[in-house]
Design brief:
With 76 residues, this protein is an alpha+beta fold. 29% of the residues lie in helices and 16% in strands.
């Protein structure tokens, strides 16, 4: 895939190019996670598959049970 480019606006906003939004099914209201890996920034759509994968990574780390039982709720 060829590189796609966007410009960061004054408030830190970036428009994700339409071809990438379509490919990754990023629609209005889709949450995205920003991750750093080996000095690179990764933008990951937060899908059910992503959440399930994170549960696997975090398993056995004594997290509060409400994270496991209420994953769609914002923690305060």
């Amino acid at each position: 895939m060829a590189a796609e480019y966007a410009t960061v606006k004054a408030k830190g906003q970036v428009v994700i190019p339409v071809d990438i939004r379509r490919k990754f099914q990023i629609d209005e209201g889709t949450r995205v996670a920003f991750l750093e890996e080996n000095g690179r920034l990764i933008i990951q759509p937060v899908t059910d598959e992503f959440i399930d994968g994170m549960r696997g990574i975090l398993a056995g780390r004594n997290l509060p049970q409400r994270i496991l039982h209420e994953p769609d709720r914002d923690l305060k």
